[in-house]
């Protein structure tokens, strides 16, 4: 009988335990990373769905403006400039350019970048270095660049055709959304635009970020210097009505208090002249959004794109003398509305829809083409629609942007559709990478990812996921409180026993139907509501830690919720009326537009309640409302701002 050495046995046992630990530890870590990634995806998905719903509300404003013209024609008599402005009938001319720029002087005290015209490559470098120091370009230079850009854009076709060659690659960038750091990082990694380093920027240069005007100046100067090798496509945010909601208008007026209005007017013209897309080597089509089953590339090549001042404004071509509808656009037409210009000054309904489709659409895995209910504009198009479109037009690939992707890009439809998104940290610090694509001569595409790294981005993954998660829950709760009355009504319909509790399934059904958000409600429930030991939901706990601040204590909750829910729509409408951007709206305009707004949206809020609220808000009794301050009075208070359950994992 052989006696076993106990010391050797102990070593073997210890080794066996260590080996098991080595095996288990990677498995545990992989599971941990997977759970974090799931939580990150859930947070991103929540952001995307709410963001898309907000954009849907923006796109649906087109219905409101049609309604306005049909039912409120005395606006045209009272303020014809407003109607003409909405339909883009105020073209600038060369004399206007001289009058505009000639009266502006750059004072000696100005310490920002000084440019020489005609521009040269040194101008671009000087401007970029100044923007890095957060210096603001003088309004004189901004307007000069805008007028020059508009004249150059007029010579461009709707689709720019460019070619690769053995000595250079073409770089394709997606949405930047005012994030100057991302653009500068791209230039740092990939080089400045030049004849040897061509770029395609695929729309959505502005809104959301703080440096939209700086991005525009860099891109426009680059275009003026290297027009054949710098392509700029229009996105759905190159639109003056979208800019009123998403921040670009506010940014310009804040940075250029004297000449901001003029800059915005000229920008409307420049945006309208932006090309609709780019085609590389007659094989790769680059457009901002996507396609539909009815997208006609030949029609889009010949459409008069400058007539589309805003995709949110539907075409209403009218005969100037008779006020009758042209044969191009049949349907109900507002009587008595006469716009300056002839019907040929406007796009037909079919042309308008074509442009909306290429700026707003998104690819999906489901076959066919169906309405983009999430955004409210454009469509969802499947792989079969993509294949048919590419085959018909003898193309091989569609590159688009328009959607934030966690890795900065995504490939779908059997490799025939690629989404590229260049704004990193789009929703929150650490939420996503940015990316750009390089296309070479007879070579495969190369993808480059990056992320602007600030102090917050250096935190561990679990901390970054917690930040994304908490922010997503915060904006979701704000949407919930704006529909509090409707949600409670839906909950109570499910609560047949009046116990104050419903099942998880009933709660999820009410949330999705009322808010119109397709979210993983069961997963999110631990962040939004309390559950008892039997798994039933105490539905009123949805609102325990959050409420809307009332500007007037006596105001009814239903009224406050309604105003909060439609605050962005109202802000756009009143910003359009406030043509001098003074921030002041007359009481008469407030009352009239609110009545029209309620009528269109079928809101059952008494006019007298809103009138009384407006009068109370007019503190100095001068007959005007500071509408921006009026809107700020409606904000959501989070009593538990740190979200006590924020550490609860979604997965």
TrEMBL record:
Cofactors required: Mg(2+); Mn(2+)
Listed SUPFAM superfamilies: EF-hand, Metallo-dependent phosphatases
Family the entry assigns: Belongs to the PPP phosphatase family.
InterPro entries (UniProt xref): Calcineurin-like_PHP, EF-hand-dom_pair, EF_Hand_1_Ca_BS, EF_hand_dom, Metallo-depent_PP-like, PPP_dom, PPP_phosphatase, Ser/Thr-Pase_EF-hand_contain
Native organism: Myotis lucifugus (Little brown bat)
SMART domains, per the entry: EFh, PP2Ac
EC numbers: 3.1.3.16
Annotated Basic and acidic residues bias: 318-328
Keyword Protein transport: no
Catalytic activity entry: O-phospho-L-threonyl-[protein] + H2O = L-threonyl-[protein] + phosphate; O-phospho-L-seryl-[protein] + H2O = L-seryl-[protein] + phosphate
Protein name per Swiss-Prot or TrEMBL: Serine/threonine-protein phosphatase with EF-hands
